């Protein structure tokens, strides 16, 4: 009761179905090419228009190549999917940031950086990582294509109200420990289903001291513990980030908005269905060893023994280690790395490239490692160049690619080959996620950078 | 996809793995279609076929011992991506019910929106159901939506399952959320005009 989640959710309930879901009003719908075509087809079949086209923004990100974006996409099916989104945006009168538009990028990077995702909003997209936008102080969650169609048709979805959970993280993060490590740590404690049915508010001094980019990383990964979304009450960090951004309110409207946003916090008397506290001092740089993001551990730790795993979970645990080619009980430090991927809606922002560049500065990429550095958007790419990070990376033997989702889910050409081990800053280490047979270790940009330089899994704290 | 739902009696296809994610249900490289057809062919693609595209004999969908329109899976089924293609693949293959002790949220909604019924059972019920199937692959379950019960017909064990009244009615009558929302346009416009005054 009286949580920030209640405040935002309740303010958006148009009606409540008896023994059923809420009819929830949606302020912002984002559309990418993979999960919307069938929704637009549904609209056409019913002879409908978009109900509130001005609240909907479309951009392709999953399929687009990370090189030669000025040329047509080679893959015919991917090209058609992108063209379909462009046509749908045009036919239904929606804003479209296409492949050669400097506003393009990964939808969850672009929304916040353009000031489209604002505190107090409800935000949805046919993509589970919509939870990212929660960092702005919004209730943001992923939906399926049928639900995209609902929003296109009525600007509403029918959703049962989730329970509320507050996760407090207290204390100062150690050297080389990043928001990504915080998220991987929480997941390792919570498992991939530990927060299913909940909406998470992140609070505590560690979170307050995070930059906007760090908060976006933390919120982004909320879905990986099963929660639909996670958010952070807006504060001065949020307002400073948003001020002057393209679509953020301006002038008098800005003042009014900030005054309203300042009211967006859980009451002192707020009661959560569940509340958990973690401590920054317990968190070290993290790596995953299995095939779901909850299978993570501190980089100095060893993979759990089979006996320590619950009996009912052992078959899945063994299948997972079998796929990764790892043994129960072993350390991952020193394992040879074939690929490093830095990018995605999780870690494709300017701060991630600053971290990566800071570690590789004056060093050289290991010859055995293929490294894909993929900015999350053209705006991030521009920042990288303005700050001269491109030069630092180039001198260390790294090449910047063009923005997109890339190897996070390998829908474009950026596929990790079968059997190869990749240290990735993305969000999922599922079997085949980065390409059929690819083996993924999730980690922070610092762990990725350290491993890219040494060619083996490396604790970045030894290099800072 | 709009199929009316009532009582189903069927054999089961067992998948006793936990945390089956949507990338396993339908890998990303098969998400490029712009319609809803054909996803069933690639359901569990990388477990079902080897690199050369030959069926993996041991995988349950390739094992003629098992059949039926009820998939029985380990806990936390459908975690990961929001891709509705996973539900289209399950429906397209011919499954009408998925039984598990726990479902990921988004995927559960996606199943319901495609007239596939997710049935949440207790861990012991699930364990005994796997055991019954193991003992006799021809055993059947009865899924009774009107009464919200699932019965293991081999043992007679029965359990209630939850579904909200609204969604139940949708499934039984074969209508969807958009039909409902379109009937509420006036409410939406009222909401917008009221909010205009408080937000700005």
Keywords:
heterodimer; A: 464 residues; alpha/beta; five-stranded parallel sheet; 16 helices; 18 strands; B: 200 residues; seven-stranded mixed sheet; 7 strands
**Spatial order of the strands in the main sheet of chain B?**
4-3-2-1-5-6-7
End-to-end C-alpha gap of chain A:
44 Å
Calculate Rg of chain A over CA atoms.
21 Å
Shape, per Cα inertia axes of chain A: globular
**Major sheet characteristics of chain A:** 5 strands, parallel
Number of strands of chain B: 7
Sheet-strand content of chain B, in percent, reads 15-25%
Q: Helix and strand string of chain B, N-terminal first?
A: EHHEHEHEHEEEHHH
Q: With helices defined by DSSP (H or I, 4 residues minimum), what is the helix count of chain A?
A: 16
Q: Output mean pLDDT of chain B.
A: 94
Shape label of chain B: globular
Helical residue percent band of chain B: 25-40%
What percentage of the residues of chain A does DSSP assign to strands (E)? 15-25%
Uncertain regions spanning at least 5 consecutive residues of chain B: none
**Largest interface pair:** A-B, 74 and 57 residues
Oligomer: heterodimer
Provide the spatial order of strands within the biggest beta sheet of chain A: 5-4-3-6-7
């Amino acid at each position: 009761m009286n949580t920030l989640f209640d405040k935002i959710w309740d303010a958006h309930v148009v009606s409540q179905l008896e023994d059923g879901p809420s009819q929830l009003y949606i302020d912002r719908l984002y559309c990418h090419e993979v999960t919307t075509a069938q929704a637009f087809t549904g609209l056409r079949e019913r002879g409908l228009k978009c109900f509130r086209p001005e609240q909907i923004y479309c951009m392709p990100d999953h399929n687009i190549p990370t090189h030669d974006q000025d040329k047509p996409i080679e893959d015919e099916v991917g090209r058609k999917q992108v063209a379909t989104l462009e046509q749908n945006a045009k036919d239904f009168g929606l804003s479209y940031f296409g492949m050669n538009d400097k506003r393009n990028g990964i939808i969850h990077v672009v929304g916040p950086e353009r000031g489209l995702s604002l505190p107090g909003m409800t935000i949805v997209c046919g993509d589970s990582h919509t939870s990212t936008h929660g960092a702005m102080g919004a209730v943001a969650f992923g939906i399926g294509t049928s639900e995209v169609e609902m929003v296109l048709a009525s600007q509403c979805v029918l959703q049962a109200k989730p329970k509320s959970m507050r996760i407090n993280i207290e204390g100062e993060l150690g050297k080389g420990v990043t928001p990504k490590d915080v998220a991987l740590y929480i997941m390792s404690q919570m498992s991939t289903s530990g927060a299913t049915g909940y909406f998470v508010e992140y609070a505590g001094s560690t979170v307050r001291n995070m930059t906007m980019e760090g908060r976006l990383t933390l919120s982004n990964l909320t879905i990986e513990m099963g929660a639909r979304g996670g958010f952070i009450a807006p504060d001065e960090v949020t307002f400073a980030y948003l001020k002057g951004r393209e679509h953020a309110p301006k002038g008098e409207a800005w003042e009014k908005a900030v005054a309203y946003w300042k009211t967006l916090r859980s009451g002192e008397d707020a009661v959560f269905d569940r509340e958990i506290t973690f401590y920054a001092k317990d968190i070290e740089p993290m790596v995953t060893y299995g095939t779901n993001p909850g299978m993570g551990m501190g980089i100095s730790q060893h993979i759990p023994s089979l006996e320590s795993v619950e009996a009912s979970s052992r078959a899945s645990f063994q299948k997972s280690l079998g796929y990764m080619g790892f043994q129960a009980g072993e350390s991952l430090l020193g394992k040879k790395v074939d690929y490093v991927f830095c990018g995605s809606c999780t870690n494709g922002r300017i701060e991630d490239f600053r971290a990566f560049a800071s570690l590789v500065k004056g060093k050289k990429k290991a010859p055995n490692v293929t490294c894909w550095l993929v900015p999350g958007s053209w705006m991030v790419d521009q920042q990288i160049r303005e700050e001269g990070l491109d030069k630092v990376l180039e001198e260390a033997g790294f090449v910047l690619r063009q923005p997109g989702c890339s190897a996070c889910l390998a829908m474009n050409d950026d596929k990790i080959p079968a059997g190869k081990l990749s240290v990735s800053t993305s969000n999922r280490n599922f079997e085949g996620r980065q390409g059929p047979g690819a083996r993924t270790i999730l980690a922070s940009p610092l762990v990725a950078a350290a491993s890219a330089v040494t060619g083996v899994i490396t604790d970045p704290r030894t290099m800072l | 996809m709009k199929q009316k739902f009532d009582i189903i009696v069927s054999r089961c296809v067992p998948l006793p793995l936990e945390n089956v994610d949507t990338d396993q249900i339908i890998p990303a490289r098969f998400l490029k279609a712009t319609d809803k057809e054909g996803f069933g062919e690639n359901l569990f693609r990388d477990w079902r076929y080897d690199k050369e595209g030959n069926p993996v004999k041991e995988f349950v969908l390739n094992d003629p011992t098992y059949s039926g329109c009820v998939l029985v899976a380990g806990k936390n089924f459908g975690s990961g991506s929001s891709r509705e293609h996973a539900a289209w693949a399950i429906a397209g293959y011919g499954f009408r019910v998925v039984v598990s002790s726990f479902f990921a949220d988004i995927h559960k909604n996606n199943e319901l929106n495609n007239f596939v019924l997710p049935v949440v059972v207790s861990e012991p019920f699930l364990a005994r159901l796997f055991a019954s199937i193991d003992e006799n692959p021809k055993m059947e379950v009865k899924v009774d939506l009107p009464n919200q019960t699932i019965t293991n017909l081999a043992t007679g064990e029965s359990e209630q399952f939850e579904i909200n009244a609204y969604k139940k009615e949708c499934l039984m009558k074969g209508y969807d959320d958009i039909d409902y929302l379109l009937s509420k346009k006036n409410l939406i416009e009222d909401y917008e005009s009221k909010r205009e005054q408080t937000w700005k």
